[in-house]
Amino acid sequence: MTLPTDDQPQRAPALKEIFNRERLRHIAEQVQAVHPAFDTAAFLRLASDGLDDLSVMQRMQRVSDCLHQVLDLDFPQALAVLYPVAPRINSGFVSLFLPQYVATYGQGHFQLSLEALRYFTGFGSSEFAIRHFLLADFERTLAVMHEWAQDDDEHVRRLASEGCRPRLPWSFRLARVQAEPQRVMPILERLRADDSLYVRKSVANHLNDIGKDHPDYLLDQLEQWPRDDRRTAWIIRHALRSLIKQGNRRALAILGAGQAPQVALQDLRIEPQPVRLGDSIRLAFTLVSRTDQTQRLVVDYAIDYVKKSGATSAKVFKLTTLELPGHGSVTLGRSQQIRQLTTRVHYPGHHAVHVLVNGERVGSTGFDLLD
What we know:
The chain is of the alpha+beta class. It has 16 helices and 7 strands.
């Protein structure tokens, strides 16, 4: 959707507005379409109360709670209503209120609830909801997720990995998985050559999570994975991204870039200078080989962002992985907009920028951000 523009830049709507009053009405109408006795007015009144003060996840929970109150049905009867509602919801993210309903009100119906989560995940995702069952009955739930890893449906296979990620964004951490990653590794092993990119992304993210708590364990596992399969090789490359940014030698070696780079850095520059908030900076440089051997190079860059206190905090960005022929050269560049984000506030001052090759800093420059 294109937002209107004028002399002042327009902010994108807050994510929580995906559960706005118009969407609440849509949900109510779809429930009433399959269950005519549903009181849409009561639902809208309850769900809208204090809506502006709620976050996106709180709004999702509010929808589930208000549905439960207005439907006034026991759990199996409620599922009979909600199953046909799922394909009628006009947003995959909004449909997450359905598995959330299961997580909140289905704890006393394990088998029925897990079947519902398997069904609902195809319309959005049950990744948040399944975690409540892992907390309540880890062994029994994990056993079902092992079965899901062999499902014909890519959405279900992804749920097997995504639902038990130890550090899933927007959800609570799974301390049991953080402490014992070997409990979920058979699921990831089973999916390491999955045909679905949707599934492989989840496996890579899950492995990256594991590496934040148990880097040596992750490296021990991935060193044994076959890298001649392009699907597995893709997962390995993305699973190691955090360790690569840290310059971990074992991780670099798995990617074939464990050796110290033999390169010279030339023509390193950032434009424009100085920089104003909203500008796009352009980083460019040339790497020249100092050996007659072909080198595999993992090239990244880091920006030392100035904090409110005046101190700096480094953030590493992926650039590329390449094969540099002996005595060859390559010119690389990247554009990046300097703008305010919910996850990063920019402050004026000098921001150092470093070029990293195979985990080693080979040169630095910087830019001055104006107030």
